[in-house]
Amino acid sequence: MEIPSTTSRVNLQKWRLALTLYLNYLVHGFGIIILAQNMTALSGAWHVPLATVSFVISGIGIGRLVAYLITGSLADLLSRKLFVLLGMGCYLIFALGMVANPSIPVAYGLAILAGIANSALDAGTYTTLVEINGGKGDGTILIKAFVSLGEFILPLLVATLANHGWWFGWSFLVMAALILLNLLNVLTVRFPNRAELKQMAAHAQAAHPTNTNHRLGATLLLLGYGYTSMALMIWFTQWVTLFAQQSLGMGETAAHFLLSLYSIGSISGVVVLFILLNRAVSELKLLVSLNLLATVALAALLWAGQTPWVANLTSLMFGFAAAGGIMQTGLTVFMKLYPARHGMVTGAFYFFGSLASFTVPLITGVLSKTSITAAFGGDLVVGLIGSCLMIGLALTHHQREEK
């Protein structure tokens, strides 16, 4: 029998590690929207109004706020694998705890734990994927495909449970089962060691010198984009189902299907974006054009969504543009500014994303007291701001190139 070459074994280990990391983000796709998709059921189980459930959801943002800067910095010093395992453990406790019919304070604590899980996974995963791909950020784009796959599956699962009158908690137990299955993979794969990481960081630092003034301006714009890009997606996924039911007059299945179409668009966007980036299409051009497309799609859904095909098409377009990996592309651009501090950059970028996770449910909870249309329509303002930030980044880069 022929013995595989060292290169073949290394490639096999690399792809097994990558797949293991990606599978965690299928679970994360559940975690992002599982509370929002079960808002009505949780409201009934806890005997509280929807605004209280929205408040609980904001705890996810608190967890991210508490953890991101810490996990990001520590990821540059400690084991990447440790943070991946920490993230999985926190998500497991969250999923099992939510089906135990907790009090509101306990539920809020579990939501905070889900935020910590998200930050720990990001700290261990984004950095690892960049490092096993020779410093390239293309591999991080595929994370969004697995997130979108989870976001596609969960609404269908929730709608099926609701249509059959089954217990909503099964959606949380499915999430827990997926975590336990993937834990077997994580425990047996090899992550890059610290010596390898130091060597790659030194090489990257020498290969990507950056002007200090340009880096400062780009940093501020990208930190702002960390907020708007996350807010844009969270706003949509939290409220599109209720908006479709109460403002567009859709039935429950059709309303949930809009979120599934968003996820299909997201997966399609990942594929297209991955191909374009591998063909050296400008990351800045993609950041500008896709943010503008997402904003146009939102405007069309708000003003012409009463027509079913328009609602379906715009949800698909929005998913393609806003959730097809464009946030990860922004992070890749950010990482290039600080090639030796990937963990710190990831933590800072997603710290601002976590501000969105915390503030969006609070803002939309207040707006929902006016109307569901007002709650959902605020996302259009976020889209406009994000587009302006990326246009500013492109102009800054263009001015630097001219010099």
Automatic annotation (TrEMBL):
A UniProt-annotated Pfam family: MFS_1
Name of this chain's protein: Transport protein
Main subcellular location: membrane
Coiled-coil residue spans: none
UniProt keywords, alphabetically: Membrane, Transmembrane, Transmembrane helix, Transport
Annotated membrane topology: Multi-pass membrane protein
Family statement drawn from the similarity comment of this UniProt entry: Belongs to the major facilitator superfamily.
PANTHER family in alphabetical order: BYPASS OF STOP CODON PROTEIN 6
Domain Major facilitator superfamily (MFS) profile span(s) in chain numbering: 17-403
Organism per entry: Limosilactobacillus ingluviei
The UniProt record lists the keyword Transport: yes
One MF annotation (Gene Ontology) recorded for this entry: transmembrane transporter activity
Membrane-spanning intervals of the chain: 21-40, 46-70, 82-100, 106-129, 141-161, 167-189, 216-237, 257-277, 284-304, 316-335, 347-368, 374-395
Signal sequence coordinates: none
Listed InterPro entries: MFS (IPR011701), MFS_dom (IPR020846), MFS_trans_sf (IPR036259), MFS_Transporter (IPR051788)
Any one GO cellular component localisation term in the record: plasma membrane
PROSITE patterns: MFS
Localization per record: Cell membrane
